[in-house]
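From the pipeline queue, job 12 of 40. The input is one protein chain; the requested action is below.

Action: predict structure.
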Amino acid sequence: MLTLSSAGAWSKWETATSKLIVDAEYIAKSNDPKWYSHCSLNFNGTNVQLRALAFARIESHFFVNGGWMADGQLLKDAYKIKHLPIVIVQGRYDIVCPAKTSWELYQALGGVENSNVEYKIINDAGHSAHEKTIELALVDAANKFKSLHT
């Protein structure tokens, strides 16, 4: 149960820091077993809530392993993908992944000189893909990619 309690705390921290405007209802969901009860299973007589646990395990594994990349590798190797259509969507008030990081990637991809890359700062958003304006920018980007193959 300590593992699940820790996973719940991790999820609560993530939901508390991911949106620009603190969303108490969103944060409360991270502690509500009903929020992830559809992801439950009965394992040896124990009901295990999987969403919070899976989320915490994936994120912590990612952090412990440095995102499976050497330090600075994404920027160093950005030239390998700069010929592809790329849209970077960045919340201005993202404290999880600050805008400095996406700006450095944009520059490594060629910046304004590269017509394949588009850099969008979303002025009223933080980190979460569940913020309305981030959602709209992501859907817009997906539609642009879709139009490349229709």
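Job complete. Confidence is low (pLDDT under 50) at residues 36-43.
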